[in-house]
Amino acid sequence: MVTPREAFAKRRKVVGFSQERLAQHLGVTTGTVGRWERGEATPEPPTQRRLVQALELTSIRELLELLHPQKLSLTAADEHFGMRSVGSRSGLAGHDSDRPVQIGHSLDRVHGVIPLVRQTLDAFDLPGDGPTRSLVEISADVARVNEHRLEARYGALADALPDLLVELARAGQLATEDVQQQQLALLRALTFRAADGIAFKFGYLDLSARLIDLMRQSAAQANDPLLVAAAEYVRTETFFASGDLSTAGRALVKAASELSLSNLDDQHVAAAYGSLHMRAAVVAGRIGDPRASRDHLSEANEAAKRVPEGVYRGTAFGPQSIRIHELAVATELRDPVGIECAATWHPSGELPAERRSHYYIELSSAQHDLGHHEEAYVCIEMARDAAPQHTREHPQVKGTLASLLQLRPGNSRVVELAAWAGARAI
Q1: Is 1.25.40 the CATH classification of the domain at 224-341?
Q2: Which InterPro entries match (predicted)?
Q3: What is the pTM of this model?
């Protein structure tokens, strides 16, 4: 029989936390973590939600099962956290809707759900019978999966996608009015983007390209120029995958030029315009064109003066997002002055977790290239604190850690991080 000490401690070690680091991450004492592991105390609901994220679990129910294997006490906070299993409403032909997709590790769940996403897209024009909720209810789920994407909760995102995609397919067939069809097209576009959030990051590049095409089609059907711009922003992933950076740059400039004809004093228009130039700056940096990078960053900064930091049509944009992209450009251009300047700043907790972790992942790679090895692994620790699921799967992290293992073979923090991320010495 597994005791609370064994179950909780085993999970903590699997995701790479010592008692001390977990306590520091949650803002509690090491003794408190010890009492949880001995079954002498139960975390308060706000801490439970943070523990679910830190331990990369699916729900508070799963956390309570670890803490009390023989006494499950599901709290209302579980439902508030917005996580549920797959399989309740899929309605796909040949799909056993009563079979939950529950794989032990949250990242493994992503790989387990990918075949269901493919199957759903294959039958998108022929969805099975099943209940279809109101657009208001569906919209809430679309917002939730996009929040999962932005906060790098990939396991929860994967769990929700198949059912939501099939319900959107059914709703599209039932809608009779043009306004409803446009609303559904917008919801489809945002859901396809959420699905691409795991397809691209987990290496399913053919599926990613397919989802991006579907997003672009849906954005056009929604008759929403800002959503079309967001789709062009995401489309850059396809060119990153193929290595066709010159086409990526042209596509971004074309999309930004079309938006420049609109009212840039409108916050949402300015955010879309600035996002495209922000992305184009990174593309130019990767090509090795510092002048073009500076020009694009200048345009993005001008746009950012008109908007507060926020999420616009699914894309984070604002002054802080630009600073993160400035670091990315400096890293691409191997600009030590730009890197050193970026290292003096840290993103605030108001930014989405995935974007914060991007900053630290980029900074880790840059510090490693500059020979600042201790700063490199400290940055990876900070990226892990911000978004563990994103950091663990990121190839840049694995590459940096593989090199650090060779350079610092006796460093226990490097060894711990490498074991957690599955990195091996080069």
Answers
A1: yes
A2: Cro/C1-type_HTH, Lambda_DNA-bd_dom_sf
A3: 0.75
